[in-house]
Amino acid sequence: MNFNATLIGQSITFIFFVWFCMKYVWPPIMSALETRKKLIADGLAAADRGKHELELAAKKAGDNMREAKATAAEVIVQAEKRAAQMVEEAKTAAKEEGERQLAAAQANIAQETNRARESLREQVAALAVAGAEKILRREVNAQTHADLLGQLKAEL
User: Fold this and answer.
1) Element (H, E) at 156
2) Residue 51: strand, helix, or coil
3) Could you say which of 7, 37, 101, 153 is the most buried, measured as most Cβ atoms within 10 Å of its Cβ?
4) Can you give the residue ranges of every domain in the chain?
5) pLDDT digits (tens, 9 = 90+) for 82-122
6) Distance between CA 22 and CA 81 in Å, rounded?
């Protein structure tokens, strides 16, 4: 075996192998690597976008929480004002009701006082007539009696 012929044969086989690999093996491998590289780059970009969106969502959630707390505080203040207003209205209504009941009681007292006076006038008139009758020891006419009672009532 000749060393030169073996070396030339191996060189031709190696060159043929390199050409074959560059023609048929290398392009699919490079295509797969490029696809993988693009997929990884897209994944990293999506992760960055997701991180950015997460930060925006966290900021928006914080803003919403502050707004909700402010709204809640405002609602509480309005509720406290309404409660105070309702208490004042209840006090006013109770005071008016008390005054109304007091006025009704006073009117009732005045009416009862007038009835008592009328009753006393009638009793005084009857006693006066009875006393006058006893003094005179005679019977007074019923019509005259009614007239006398009417005059006495008017005078009292």
Assistant:
1) none
2) helix
3) 153
4) 3-155
5) 999 999 999 999 999 999 999 999 999 999 999 998 888 88
6) 85
Q: What is the pTM of this model?
A: 0.43
Buried b (16+ CB within 10 A) or exposed e, 69-108: eeeeeeeeeeeeeeeeeeeeeeeeeeeeeeeeeeeeeeee
Q: How far apart are CA 76 and CA 62, in angstroms?
A: 21
**Residue 102 one-letter amino acid:** L
DSSP per-residue codes, 77-112? HHHHHHHHHHHHHHHHHHHHHHHHHHHHHHHHHHHH
Euclidean distance between CA atoms 56 and 64, whole angstroms? 12
AA letter at 144: T
Q: Which two tokens stand for residue 66?
A: 């502050």
Where is 139: in which H helix or E strand?
Answer: none
Say how far apart CA 101 and CA 138 lie, in whole Å.
52
Q: Which of 155, 97, 98, 110 is nearest to 128 (CA)?
A: 155
Is the separation of the CB atoms in 125 and 153 below 8 Å? yes
CB distance 140 to 148 below 8 Å: yes
Q: The tokens of 61 are what?
A: 């959630």
Residues recorded for the chain: 156
What is the separation of C-alpha 78 from the centre of its chain, rounded to a whole number of angstroms?
Answer: 9
